[in-house]
Hints:
- Helix 3 runs antiparallel to helix 4 (about 75-95).
- The chain has 6 helices and 8 strands.
- By secondary structure, the chain is α+β, with helices and mostly antiparallel strands.
- Strands 1, 2, 3, 4, 5, 6, 7 and 8 form an 8-stranded mixed beta sheet that branches.
- The protein has one domain (about 35-205): Alpha-Beta Complex (tt1808, chain A).
Amino acid sequence: MLGKNVIDLENGNYTFSDYFKMDISPKKLSKTFGYKFQVKRINFKSNPLNDNLTDFIQNFHRKLFKLRDKVNLNSEMAKREFLIAPIISELVENIDIEVNIEANTYFDKTLKGTIDYVLNNENNIFIAIEAKNSEIEKAIVQLSSELITLDKIIEEKSDFIYGAVTIGFIWCFLVMDRNQKLITQHIDYYSIKELEDIIKILVGILGD
């Protein structure tokens, strides 16, 4: 008999987005698949930014100030086009990474679906998903299922897999420790006003 702290997935067929819809915690989701989950301050590596990225941050804030007066940024499409995609595009221009958008991912009938963004270099993988309806907490559950899936299918011996949930204006970072089977959610959320901190984290993960 299954305990209350795990999900009964027997005879089920689930995608990543199904976990978003469930009324469950990321800890319960993680425990179901044999992982641990915690919320804790993460000491991210913070690489210095080159002049191009520094200029981008300044221009981004200037453009965003004008956009908010002229463009409705409430829709998911608008957030993706104006808030998320420019950041990823700038990373591609400045560091040696590959990007896969809407990556189909499969491990088994309970761990499968599409990941919004997969960014990787030779050493690390970073995934990002947009939180539907701005529901960050539910998206953290979904992201946890995606991190678990990647841990199971990636053969490379990288010790960590990184991820983030974003609603465009807010970013929340998670890290999977593959050796300890432990997912850690960073205790702080980052506002788009803290774009420099967000990009420093991304460059720290993917810029090596």
